[in-house]
Design goal:
mainly alpha, globular
């Protein structure tokens, strides 16, 4: 579509990302503490199992992108996936939060369910996000679509957090009891299925139809050859290096948040319930600043500003806590101060994510210029692969940090020794600082700016017009 996109399309397209938000909230905020503190599994072991699931995912994800690019139906390339995958995903999600018998599953059982959830979510998210470069080639409008995707994703995840803190697992004790997690899983499953299917249905009239070119026969040899060619694109490799660091930071920060919220900041009652509301304020702030940042500085420099700014704001309360310069944990002053830094840090952190995700859309045309082929699914499966691997690495790092700090299983807030908390915080801060610098270094060197992208799109359009028949009938 040329020009500004209609508001209805932005909202409907973004709505499909709510499923990702539900998954991200569950995996990042609740999964580790549920299997560790509630079901009694070792934190390091859980982190290792989830990381193993990612290694399996790493092989399959690019194949999903390849298959999505080559799907040929009267509903187009992406819609069949968006109609077929959500229901199995919902079932797998329920099983993740309701282990048979209510006890901790075996390592193999947790691995199987985690792999199923990740693969089925990829089958939803990769085709959905691959629609962005198909809908528009406008540099700014692509950012707008991602703004709405991230807004919907965060709303989905934060809604589950609010429900967790107020309905399913209220209070500090609720997070450490098993009863509410089953209902948490069922509610999340419903949101996942409705968001993906509803978004697909809302875009059906726009994207349904036979693809312009019929793909050749499927071949695993050709699949891996094309994936290798796509992933060797220089711009993608630069994005992957910076994006990996950014997504690891997010996975680490989110997965450790329940530990620091309970044991460091000692949030309880209304203070704990306010946590997702603080995150929501950061999302609203992001929604209004990311567009102006991209227009003024471009996506690479915006990512640098976001990465370094997020680290500065996010780590300040922890450093002050270790230095005994922070108000007493659990007091109103401590909680308000922590939330103020959280809003600013998370707002800039989301700017990094949107900047990185939107960069991938520009790689599509760079690859098309070099090879004559479009591979939206391949590149966004690559982005998805980087994101999921990084999130898993972040959760893995949290498990190792918790294990290294020697936090005991079923610990009680207020009773954890200061040495344990300081060890946890210093390891977390050190890892976050290194990751922020790596992210800023690589994303700041992303080679495609707005002027170059617009010139490339104009050249591709001119070449396409020159090769089309002079009296082409409308389809």
């Amino acid at each position: 579509m040329a020009g500004r996109l209609p508001m209805r399309l932005k909202v409907i397209h973004g709505f499909g990302a709510a499923a990702f938000g539900v998954k991200d909230s569950g995996f990042s905020f609740f999964l580790l503490i549920y299997y560790n503190q509630v079901l009694g599994m070792d934190a390091g072991t859980v982190g290792q199992i989830l990381f193993a699931a990612l290694l399996i995912d790493a092989v399959v994800d690019p194949l999903l992108g390849y298959l999505s690019d080559r799907t040929y139906t009267r509903w187009g390339r992406r819609l069949p996936w968006l109609y077929a995958a959500p229901i199995p995903l919902a079932i797998a999600w329920i099983l993740l939060w309701s282990p048979p018998g209510g006890d901790a599953p075996s390592a193999g059982g947790l691995l199987a369910v985690a792999v199923a959830v990740r693969l089925l979510l990829s089958a939803c998210e990769v085709p959905s996000v691959s629609l962005v470069p198909e809908i528009t080639d406008d540099y700014v409008e692509r950012t707008t679509l991602f703004r709405y995707r991230y807004l919907a994703g965060w709303l989905g995840g934060l809604s589950m957090m609010v429900l967790a803190y107020t309905v399913f697992m209220p209070g500090q004790d609720g997070l450490l009891e098993a009863d509410g997690y089953a209902a948490f899983g069922i509610c999340g499953a419903v949101i996942m299925a409705v968001s993906v299917i509803g978004s697909a249905w809302g875009q059906h009239s726009l994207v349904a139809g036979l693809p312009e070119h019929k793909p050749g026969p499927l071949s695993f040899a050709n699949a891996f050859a094309e994936i290798k060619q796509a992933f060797s694109e220089r711009a993608f490799l630069i994005f992957a290096a910076g994006g990996l660091a950014a997504y690891i930071t997010q996975g680490l920060t989110f997965s450790i948040s329940q530990y620091v919220n309970l044991f460091v900041w000692q949030l309880e009652g209304g203070a704990l319930t306010a946590y997702p509301l603080a995150l929501f304020l950061s999302v609203i702030g992001m929604f209004f600043i990311v567009g102006p940042l991209h227009r003024r500085f471009g996506k690479p420099k915006s990512a640098v500003i976001g990465s370094l700014g997020a680290a500065a704001f996010g780590m300040t309360p922890y450093l002050l806590f270790v230095a005994d310069l922070w108000p007493e944990a659990g007091t109103l002053v401590s909680t308000l101060g922590f939330y103020a830094f959280l809003v600013l840090g998370n707002m800039l952190g989301i700017v990094v994510m949107i900047s990185a995700s939107s960069m991938v859309a520009e790689i599509v045309e760079a690859y098309q210029e070099r090879t004559g082929q479009r591979a939206e699914g391949a590149f966004y499966s690559g982005n998805w692969l980087v994101q999921k691997c990084a999130t898993g690495i972040g959760i893995f790092l949290t498990g190792q940090i918790i294990a290294a700090s020697e936090l005991v299983t079923r610990a009680q807030p207020g009773s954890v020794p200061g040495a344990v908390l300081n060890e946890m915080i210093l390891l977390y801060v050190a890892a976050s600082f290194v990751l922020a610098v790596v992210c800023a270094f690589w994303l700041g060197r992303f080679p495609i700016g707005q002027a170059e992208h617009e010139a490339r799109v104009a050249a591709l359009r001119k070449a396409a017009d020159a090769t089309e028949p002079p009296h082409r009938l409308p389809r």
